[in-house]
Amino acid sequence: MNKIRILPDNLSNQIAAGEVVERPASVIKELVENSIDAGASRIQIDIELGGRRLMRVSDNGSGMTRDDAILAFERHATSKIRTLEDLGMIATLGFRGEALASIASVARVELVTKLDRDQAGTRVLLEGGRLVDVKDAARDTGTTLAVRDLFFNTPARRKFMRSEATENYHLTSIITHYSLAYPEIAFSLTNNGREVISVAPARDLRERAFQLFGGQILESLLPVSGGRDFVARLSGFISAPRERRTNRDSQYFFVNKRYVRDKTIGEGLREGYRSVLPNGVYPVAFLFVDVPVEEVDVNVHPAKTEVRFRRNEAVKDVIAEAVRESLASAGIGPDTSVGSFGVADRLTGEDPQVRSSVEPEMEQFQIAFHPTSRCIGAGTANAASMSSGVAASPVRDNLQENDVSAGSESAVDPNISSDFETAAQRRISEPASFMPDGSPSDQQPLVPIDLPPLQSAARLVSGAEIEEVSGQKVKVIGQLHNSFIIAVDDEGLLLIDQHVAHERILFDKFRKKEAERPVESQNLLLPETVDLTPAQAEAFRMVEDHLFELGFDLMMLSGRTVAIKSIPTDVQPADARNLFAEILDSIELEKRGSAKAAFRDDIAASLACKAAIKINMKLTDEKMHWLIDRLLMTSSPTTCPHGRPVILRLSMKDIERGFHRT
Ligand code: ADP
Ligand code: MG
Known about the structure:
Blueprint: H1 9-20, H2 24-37, E1 42-48, E2 54-59, H3 66-71, H4 84-87, H5 99-105, E3 108-114, E4 121-127, E5 130-137, E6 142-148, H6 155-159, H7 164-181, E7 186-191, E8 194-199, H8 205-213, H9 215-219, E9 221-228, E10 232-239, E11 251-255, E12 258-259, H10 263-273, E13 285-290, E14 296-297, E15 308-309, H11 312-329, H12 344-347, H13 352-356, H14 360-367, H15 381-388, H16 394-403, H17 414-429, E16 462-463, E17 475-480, E18 484-489, E19 492-497, H18 498-515, E20 521-531, H19 534-549, E21 553-556, E22 561-568, H20 576-586, H21 596-611, H22 621-632, E23 647-651, H23 652-658
Parallel strand pairs: 1-7, 11-13
Antiparallel strand pairs: 1-2, 2-6, 3-4, 3-6, 4-5, 7-8, 9-10, 10-13, 11-12, 14-15, 16-23, 17-18, 18-19, 19-23, 20-22, 21-22
Helix pairs in contact: 1-5, 2-7, 7-8, 10-11, 14-15, 18-21, 18-22, 20-21
Magnesium ion binds near residues 30, 33, 34 and 94.
């Protein structure tokens, strides 16, 4: 008996749907692309229950004849290509003719459409890929496609759908993408009847960005353009370094105006920002890459969100180069090295006099203040002390090199630390630049005191267990690099990271605050306003209550603008806006809508990180004692909320072993 069988159409469509319809957002992507291909100037999208119950896209595009309306749901039915040659020069977003067939096979679909010259419109109903009904319907020219009960007939896939909030995030992101790519088209998105995005036709990308994100972001956008013939042309905007994000959510990439998830572009962008932004911090970017159609294959994946560039490396270089040029013409360049953290401030028109009079320590303070969910403030000791460039001595350099291994590697930007190492080596190999006492001399050849390589104690150092540290017996010796407290107890030597120690104290405090009200909070003299992105606005709605419990008083003004009226007492008023945006960004995608407790911790951790004493800050003995006492009273004195160690110990046993005394 023969074993091979041709699969029935419906089954093969369902299999194809597995690739085209990854999640509700992929349905919306296909439908919106169809509307754009149909020449629509107005597209309305309505979502219910994260797309699970309903996704409806209406446009004022060309519409379809009755025959086409039925044919459109056949596999490989497309009006966009006819020949193999066409495939090489695709000018439309769709071309495979399988989206509608795939979507219809896993949902209940209603299509209402009317061609301009037709009298009556057509209504087509399908269920799980089966045509159920066709009849006349009234409608203006254009097409409405409603997709209900996604995956109703594939229970396994329905079960694997993410939370409503996660799906909403992706849906919003897709519409944000396409509305950036097509400023001339009016878009509107409603979610459970609530308006999320509503933008009128705009003149250009800048105006569209303003409609979507508000005026604040516009001030830091730098135009980027460039490229090479036959490789790629780049246009769009990138942000000045002061505009920072803790994830890539604010990076929008397009290839030939098609939404893509592409690594090449992301890598090119990162390369362009190298040594301007530390790792883990992301710029805002709207990048349009135009590539000759024969240079790019969009037919790599059924969902068409992946592309393959024929000359991948060349494309990456083109992007990096254009980004560097854009930054350079704004006066931001890699030669400013680590100091360029502050360069962005130049763009704000701050008085240079004021800036130069700022103490190096103040400058470092600011570095540590920039938002990131991983809290780089805790890890930039080396970079910061390097930028100050003062009091370099070989001994100090050796110390710095050693303290790279002092437990906070995870947070240290590898670029910065390697920059630092080369800078340190340079200083060591340029004896003329300093005297042992730090003062240059032009009299005699300079001979720095070069210690022979010191034995590293790194192997002997370990994270301290809490039972081993008891407050009464801890004696503070001093501070290392204004960043770490050196202390001793009966067991030996202790090194305490002042930033993470304070972070732990505050984290516990903020967690407790939520449990017991009233909270201490301070009013801002003038309320600060923040323009939220659509995604941040979604996040805001979810955590509004928590923020209130923590001491924030926030008010949603019109659209997506929030006024900050008061903030927790431990936070600096100047920091309010950044902190607030950071908290919203840090509510991780996958956690949105899942366990509330999870993001409650995230918020407390962000707050704690922001409000904690920074590294490179001189502390009095009292303050150091206070820190240690309070630290030992917290729930977990030896690890910070991000999981890094707070205390390192060099035990007497290890010390004796290190000196070969045992
Ligand atoms: P593709 O977009 O790859 O051609 P689809 O399955 O997405 O395939 O759509 C099939 C066909 O249905 C399209 O080629 C187009 O002719 C027609 N179509 C789909 N949506 C619309 C729409 N909103 N307006 C006009 N025609 C549409
Ligand atoms: Mg299509």
